[in-house]
Backbone:
């Protein structure tokens, strides 16, 4: 296909604003999927691929509209994957920005719109769900126009649900989005904007060809990582996998690599041909590092091998997941895992529990710290219990947070951010009612219950997004917890000096509530080094009997004791003390108060 | 098959106390005779399960003494003889004639449900009898010649102060019973009582935590032997422990007759239907009433041996129970001074502190 007839675009939207439904309608209207094949939200469904023995999800679908080849490139929906989103956007020349007519612009809309603008994309603004009774298309159109620097009459008004206005969207894609630039005759270069692992075919790279062309059975190289392989097949999704002779300049498709390890082909890298290699890679490759860490432990220590296998399998498809074995004296054998962010952590945890049927204890997450020791060594610390006692300097990651709230909630949000060591950057009115607040915050302050607090203080109206902006020095202390004199490594945390006493106190109070009374007094202490900053005692039980036990009570009594025993087995032994798993999560929502 | 212990359930009550979750039947005095007929028919059906000579018979309820005297007499005469025959009595139902009748029918031991001597607390418990009823009933039974009397007390009643508890114990001791059963009030889910008082009980839980210790201290000071978690007997040459209940705690087989009664014989436990109509109908037709059967495999029997045996103040022989005991827990509990081994490690008992925590300690010991 000549470049002039190709359009590459993404749909970007806040969650639930209708991205998937719009994608479905586009597939329908372009007859990529016949009515019979049409199922709701094809792009999100893996069934079609499964039928063909392929277990991966299409990251780009090719459709035809009025003689043009349109490639719809999917973007990961979340803040933690900003880098992946930016790579997907780099594969496009334009983006359809979808905003719910009833909800208006949200934080994720802003973040995605800015990303699209940074990537020089032509934006096709769309107000969706105009059929809703609560829709306010005019106000929403004005907000979007303001956001992307366009005029409101240029904003399309559609209902993806009813199909109203979809043809206009496709026309606008053809008319407004420029065709890709590229040199069909130059040495081959393609951007890897996503990859997936298929158990039969190995790593499948999703690529946007920039220059030259790619064919099957040609030796290729990933330029940044130096990974070499021979392409087994090239092709595209429409909507199922279709092999092609070649992928030419400007086109989007897949390359089956036969590689067995997804980490050898990183998103953002450039593919080139070994025989006629390009002079240099495409710009923008970054080695993304995990920022949020947590310990994952099997509830039942016998499940350790299963957890290890499960992590190995997840890693096949998730190059940004990091893990290494960890031994905790309180929780036994497990893994310290690194994630791009909180949602990434949630996704991994959910998949482990749901797909692999594992029962897990996830310790309170912490961020990565850069530490300069007194001895002059620079180390990166992923676990509070590994923080050296004697440090010269500690640096922690900072984020730039964008929060959009109705103007009445500006006060509570500012208050929250101040409590969380936030530095006000700026504020702007998106409309008369809604305000964008931009803050710089230590990432550590948002990994613990920030979302919950933000939601509860704004009655659910706030939307939030962030971007890591680098490391900064902080006055940080390591607080340890001792239960009956035994330090509990899994409960150590690193906090800002000013908040250490308050945190230590809250932690000790929470533990007193969470740890059931034992057969003896149990002191619970929080300490910085050898200095105890808070202390509580869990008083010993004085009685624990079932008074009556005669002929008719024996079965019930036995079952009660068996239940009690089972409950004990679910607890973790810290020295002589039985600590319920919930106690290890006490640090998660210290400010959240009682459950 | 031969159980040497027989339990007979007499479910009839004048009214239902709010805290009670036993199988009881209020009113229906017209059915007492039919019920006794059914019991005797059931006894005939189960006769093979009983040993030729019984050690104990226990008539519990309900309110056994509410049963029509003639019906009760007929029942007592028809039941097999035993060395100990106990009947539970409600203080309000004891008359001189009734006491004499029981004595005449071979009853050796009476268990009187006093529960409390404070009118206010009896009201909370919805007990109809007054404190003086308990005292009078006790005197009547003594006069009738009973030399083995037991009193039931309940503590931890909503609104019960330490002084109230002390007063109840003093009143009970003043009667010089041979035996005392002291139960902490259990707010069982689903009872009217829990509905009305559950919140209050939770509020006072901490304050009443010491009551169990107090009961044990007062009674042992007064010369009673704390021979089972909730049971005490005068410590004298005559063994005044309840032989019938000891059988439960020693894991002996027992046969239960009547609605809702439980039997355990040779590794099988069953509970007879609690529904009066069905029970009567089945036995009128000389058929076994419906029962809910629970098989007790060897490991379960061993666990029960442990949990029951450790309720007593006598050491439990561990012979054959190795599989039932978590060795690690045993060591840990020994270190904490909650259990003690004796007889070259072949016997096990809870220490005094261990007995106050018996439920939790046993739960931990179970393998």
Residues:
């Amino acid at each position: 296909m000549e470049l002039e007839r190709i359009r590459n675009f993404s749909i970007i939207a806040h969650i639930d604003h209708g991205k998937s439904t719009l994608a479905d309608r586009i597939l329908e209207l372009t007859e990529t999927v016949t009515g019979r094949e049409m199922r709701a939200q094809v792009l999100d469904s893996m069934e079609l691929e499964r039928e063909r023995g392929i277990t991966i999800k299409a990251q780009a679908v090719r459709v035809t509209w009025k003689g043009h080849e349109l490639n719809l490139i999917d973007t990961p929906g979340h803040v933690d994957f900003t880098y992946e989103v930016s790579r997907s956007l780099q594969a496009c020349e334009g983006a359809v920005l979808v905003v719910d007519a009833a909800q208006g612009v949200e934080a994720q809309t802003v973040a995605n719109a800015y990303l699209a603008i940074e990537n020089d994309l032509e934006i096709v603004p769309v107000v969706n769900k105009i059929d809703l009774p609560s829709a306010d298309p005019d106000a929403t159109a004005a907000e979007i126009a303001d956001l992307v620097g366009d005029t409101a009459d240029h904003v399309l008004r559609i209902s993806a649900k009813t199909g109203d206005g979809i043809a206009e969207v496709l026309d606008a894609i053809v008319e407004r989005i420029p065709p890709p630039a590229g040199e069909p005759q130059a040495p081959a270069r393609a951007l890897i904007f996503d990859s997936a692992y298929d158990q039969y075919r190995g790593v499948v790279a999703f690529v946007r060809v920039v220059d030259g062309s790619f064919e099957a059975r040609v030796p290729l190289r990933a330029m940044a990582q130096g990974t070499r392989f021979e392409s087994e097949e090239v092709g595209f999704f429409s909507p199922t996998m279709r092999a092609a002779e070649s992928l030419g300049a400007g086109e989007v498709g897949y390359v089956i690599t036969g590689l067995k390890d997804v980490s050898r082909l990183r998103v953002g890298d450039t593919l080139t041909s070994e025989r006629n290699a390009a002079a240099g890679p495409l710009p923008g490759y970054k080695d993304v590092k995990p920022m949020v860490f947590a310990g994952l432990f099997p509830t039942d220590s016998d499940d350790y091998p299963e957890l290890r296998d499960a992590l190995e399998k997840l890693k096949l498809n998730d190059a940004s997941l990091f893990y290494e074995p960890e031994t905790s004296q309180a929780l036994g054998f497990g893994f310290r895992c690194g994630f791009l962010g909180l949602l990434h952590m949630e996704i991994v945890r959910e998949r482990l529990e749901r797909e692999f049927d594992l029962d897990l204890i996830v310790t309170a997450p912490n961020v990565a710290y850069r530490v300069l020791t007194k001895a002059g060594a620079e180390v990166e610390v992923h676990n509070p219990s590994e923080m050296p006692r004697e440090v010269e300097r500690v640096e922690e990651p900072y984020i730039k947070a964008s929060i959009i709230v109705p103007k009445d909630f500006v006060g509570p949000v500012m208050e929250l951010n101040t409590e969380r060591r936030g530095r006000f950057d700026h504020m702007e009115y998106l409309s008369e009612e809604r305000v964008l607040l931009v803050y710089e915050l230590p990432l550590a302050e948002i990994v613990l219950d920030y979302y919950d607090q933000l939601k509860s203080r704004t009655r659910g109206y706030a939307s939030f997004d962030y971007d890591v902006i680098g490391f900064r020095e902080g006055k940080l202390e390591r607080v340890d917890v001792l239960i009956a004199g035994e330090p509990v490594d899994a409960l150590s945390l690193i906090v800002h000096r000013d908040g250490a006493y308050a945190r230590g106190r809250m932690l000790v109070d929470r533990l007193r509530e969470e740890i059931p009374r034992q057969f003896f007094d149990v002191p619970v202490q929080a300490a910085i080094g050898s200095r105890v900053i808070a202390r509580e005692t869990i008083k010993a039980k004085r009685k624990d009997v079932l008074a009556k036990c005669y002929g008719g009570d024996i079965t019930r009594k036995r079952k009660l004791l068996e239940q009690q025993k089972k409950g004990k087995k679910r607890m973790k032994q810290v020295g002589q003390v039985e600590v319920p798993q919930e106690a290890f999560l006490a640090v998660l929502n210290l400010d959240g108060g009682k459950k | 098959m031969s159980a040497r212990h027989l339990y007979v359930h007499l479910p009839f009550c004048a009214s239902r106390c709010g805290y009670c979750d036993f199988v009881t039947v209020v009113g229906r005095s017209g059915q007492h005779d039919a019920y006794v007929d059914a019991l005797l028919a059931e006894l005939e059906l189960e006769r093979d399960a009983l040993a030729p000579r019984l050690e104990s018979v226990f008539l519990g309820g309900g309110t056994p003494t509410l049963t029509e005297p003639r019906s009760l007499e007929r029942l007592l005469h028809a039941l097999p003889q035993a060395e100990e025959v106990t009947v539970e009595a409600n203080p309000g139902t004891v008359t001189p004639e009734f006491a004499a009748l029981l004595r005449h029918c071979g009853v050796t031991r009476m268990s009187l449900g006093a529960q409390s001597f404070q009118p206010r607390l009896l009201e909370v418990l919805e007990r109809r009898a007054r404190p003086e009823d308990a005292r009078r009933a006790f005197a009547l039974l003594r006069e009738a010649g009973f030399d083995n009397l037991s009193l039931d007390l309940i503590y931890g009643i909503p609104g019960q102060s330490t002084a109230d508890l002390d007063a109840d114990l003093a009143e009970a001791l003043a009667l010089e019973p041979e035996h005392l059963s002291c139960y902490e009030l259990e707010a069982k889910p689903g009872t009217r009582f829990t509905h009305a008082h559950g919140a209050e009980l939770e509020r006072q839980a901490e304050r009443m935590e010491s009551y169990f210790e107090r009961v044990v201290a007062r009674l042992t000071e007064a010369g009673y032997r704390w021979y089972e978690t909730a049971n005490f007997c005068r410590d004298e040459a005559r063994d005044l422990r309840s032989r019938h209940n000891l059988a439960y705690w020693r894991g002996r087989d027992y046969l239960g007759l009547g609605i809702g009664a439980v039997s355990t014989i040779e590794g099988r436990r069953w509970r007879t239907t609690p529904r009066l109509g069905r029970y009567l109908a089945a036995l009128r037709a000389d058929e076994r009433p419906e029962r809910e059967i629970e098989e007790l495999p060897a490991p379960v029997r061993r666990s029960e041996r442990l949990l029951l045996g450790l309720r007593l103040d006598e050491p439990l022989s561990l012979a054959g129970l190795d599989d039932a005991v978590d060795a690690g827990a045993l060591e840990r509990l020994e270190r904490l001074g909650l259990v003690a081994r004796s007889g070259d490690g072949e016997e096990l008992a809870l220490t005094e502190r261990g007995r106050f925590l018996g439920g939790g300690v046993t739960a931990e010991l179970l393998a």
Summary: Chain B has 14 helices and 17 strands. The two ends of chain B are 29 Å apart (CA to CA). Residues 7 and 256 of chain B are 4 Å apart (CA to CA).
